[in-house]
């Protein structure tokens, strides 16, 4: 078993997390998030060309139509291109297809999403996140205790803010796959936290005045460390593999999962556990115990 002082060095972990979150928030306010067509509405062309093309060549083909600022990205290979534009009527859509056909396109898949649908999806996503956080607080408070629920919610909020900040910094589009990954990964994050809290609860039953509550929590983290890291690695490795060599349609999902897995593992050890120890140490009996230990 390791014997690292996770709780005692919480100022370091909190400062690091604060820097990551603040930088991410600055990026959000400065440049905003890049939302996919599902949220903004518009038209998405998946175009397959007969030969490899550059995004510059594609832009040159549609620029005379007034789409010079369209978002153009390669798919899994240089022959597949994704083009995102504003909402188009049938006539404008046909003009784009004609221009791309002249540039060598041979196949089209067009997806159109209205702005009103994107607005409803955004509202639904926000509500889902709020409900998920509320349920976590109630469940952990009922299963363990309220302060553990509060610490779990802090860790969960840390993961969400960190992930959003990283997306803003990286400029990756937020799609429905991203949202699905975020909601999925909340379960992994809570699982890691509950593994440690369950050990804290077990150790608290045999808790003696020979050590402080913080020392007991720190011991619990060290006892759970190998299991937490092993569990996370078994998930991180395949997700990272998908991100590196998977198809383009899977990469958004894999990227969000990877961020969530890493942030969830970090927060359960370096955020949730120190927060719990810090809050519990304010209880009168643990304040008295700490003073007694410090006077010896």
Give structural notes:
With 296 residues, this protein is of the alpha+beta class. The protein folds into 2 domains: 10-36 and 117-295, Multidrug efflux transporter AcrB transmembrane fold (Up-down Bundle), CATH 1.20.1640.10; 42-113, Alpha-Beta Plaits (2-Layer Sandwich). Helix content is 71%, strand content 10%. The protein contains 10 helices and 6 strands; from the N terminus they run H-E-H-E-H-E-E-H-E-H-H-E-H-H-H-H. The strands form 2 sheets. A 4-stranded antiparallel beta sheet has the order 3-4-2-5. Strand 3 and strand 4 (80-85) form a beta hairpin. The radius of gyration is 24 Å and the shape is elongated. The mean pLDDT is 82.
Helix and strand arrangement:
Layout: H1 10-31, E1 34-35, H2 37-40, E2 42-49, H3 55-62, E3 71-74, E4 80-85, H4 90-102, E5 105-113, H5 115-143, H6 146-170, E6 173-174, H7 176-205, H8 213-245, H9 248-280, H10 284-295
Parallel strand pairs: 1-6
Antiparallel strand pairs: 2-4, 2-5, 3-4
Helix pairs in contact: 1-6, 5-6, 5-7, 6-7, 6-9, 7-8, 7-9, 8-9
Order of helices and strands: HEHEHEEHEHHEHHHH
What summary fits the major beta sheet? 4 strands, antiparallel
Percentage of helical residues? over 70%
> What is the number of domains?
2
Short descriptors:
296 residues; alpha+beta; Multidrug efflux transporter AcrB transmembrane fold; Alpha-Beta Plaits; 2 domains; two-stranded parallel ribbon; 6 strands; elongated
């Amino acid at each position: 078993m390791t014997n690292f002082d996770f709780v005692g060095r919480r100022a370091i972990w909190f400062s690091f997390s604060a820097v990551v979150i603040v930088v991410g928030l600055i990026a959000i306010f400065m440049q905003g998030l890049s939302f996919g067509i599902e949220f903004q509405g518009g038209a998405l062309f998946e175009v397959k060309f007969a030969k490899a093309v550059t995004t510059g060549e594609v832009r040159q083909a549609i620029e005379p139509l007034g789409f010079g600022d369209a978002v153009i990205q390669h798919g899994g290979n240089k022959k597949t291109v994704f083009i995102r534009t504003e909402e188009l009527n049938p006539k404008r859509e046909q003009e784009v297809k004609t221009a791309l056909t002249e540039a060598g396109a041979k196949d089209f898949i067009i997806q159109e999403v209205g702005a009103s649908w994107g607005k409803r999806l955004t509202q639904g996503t926000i509500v889902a996140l709020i409900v998920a956080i509320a349920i976590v607080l109630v469940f952990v408070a009922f299963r363990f205790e309220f302060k553990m629920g509060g610490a779990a919610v802090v860790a969960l909020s840390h993961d969400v803010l960190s992930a959003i900040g990283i997306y803003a910094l990286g400029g990756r589009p937020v799609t429905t796959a991203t949202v699905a990954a975020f909601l999925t990964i909340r379960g992994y994050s809570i699982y890691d936290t509950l593994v440690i809290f369950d050990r804290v609860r077990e150790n608290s039953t045999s808790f003696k005045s020979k050590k402080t509550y913080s020392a007991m929590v720190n011991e619990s983290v060290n006892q759970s460390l190998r299991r937490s890291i092993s569990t996370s690695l078994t998930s991180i490795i395949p997700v990272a593999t998908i991100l590196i060599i998977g198809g383009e349609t899977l990469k958004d999902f894999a990227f969000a999962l990877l961020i969530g897995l890493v942030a969830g593992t970090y927060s359960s050890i370096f955020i949730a556990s120190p927060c719990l120890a810090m809050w519990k140490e304010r209880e009168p009996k643990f304040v008295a115990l700490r003073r007694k230990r410090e006077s010896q």
